[in-house]
Amino acid sequence: MPTIDCEYAHAAEKDPKILITTSLNPSDPLTRFAKELKIVFPNAIRMNRGSQGIPEIIETCRIHDFTDVVVVHEFRGVPDGIIISHLPFGPTAHFRLLNVVTRHDIKDKKAMGTMPQAYPHLIFNNFSTKLGERTVSILKHLFPVPKLGTERIIAFDNNSDFISFRHYTYKKCGGPKPVDLKEIGPQFELQLHKIELGTLDQDGAQTEWVMRPYMNTSKKRKLLGQ
User: Fold this and answer.
1) Where does the Brix domain start and stop, copy by copy (predicted)?
2) Which of 39, 97, 98, 174 is surrounded by the most beta carbons within 10 Å?
3) Burial 125-163 (b: 16+ CB within 10 A, else e)
């Protein structure tokens, strides 16, 4: 099995190519969220899963040189989980998904602005532990390297092991307000649940890290950053 050091060794040689799909029989809210994720991640393709199983999806993605598969789940019509599986060998990260607000759900869509196509700059705040650095590695490799001058930012802000995702555009204005920052959505929170060393289709994949019940109840322990 590949080691952690070599999983992303060749990531800089080509841009990510991501397949986004859902759990079986997705509701309208989950389908809308998956559509918005397609625009968040450059070079992403969204697939209506139909009756296809995970092994079939993973194998097809390997054949067609996809770098990652992203699967979003729901509970009673509310998006509640996202799985990121890096190809061809892993890792696979399982996140809880909380407080999803899609662009569709925002009343004043004009104030949010249009969804840009440029590759975004990434900001990661408060991922100071080894697990935090591992989480950053998994998330950042979903995005290609942006060009200088790109006016698009995606921020992952860790607060007590809940990762807030926010999406912005900005313009340099000069004067008393040098930068005009505008949030364009969607927005949501992530909580890391498990990291496996294999891909999503491998039932026997080795668990690298998993959230234990006592970790949720500890008020002092910070897993991703201080």
Assistant:
1) 16-201
2) 97
3) ebbebebbebbbbbbbbbbbebeeeebbbbbbbbeebeb
pLDDT tens string 36-91: 999 999 999 999 998 999 999 999 999 999 999 999 999 999 999 999 999 999 99
Q: Is the dihedral of CA 95, 71, 69, 142 positive or negative?
A: negative
Query: Tokens representing 71?
Result: 């699967």
The residues pairing with 153 across neighbouring beta strands, listed in sequence order, are 121, 168
Can you name the residues that pair with 69 across neighbouring β-strands?
19, 85
* 24: exposed, middle or buried (Cβ count in 10 Å: 0-12, 13-18, 19+): exposed
82 to each of 69, 102, 206, how far by Cα in Å?
10, 15, 19
Residue with tokens 């990291």: 195
The pairing of strands 179-183 and 162-172 is antiparallel
- Cα end-to-end span (Å), the chain: 32
| Number of other residues whose CB lies within 10 A of the CB of residue 195 | 24
Torsion of CA 168, 158, 102, 69, to 10 degrees: 100
- Percentage of the chain beyond pLDDT 90 is 69
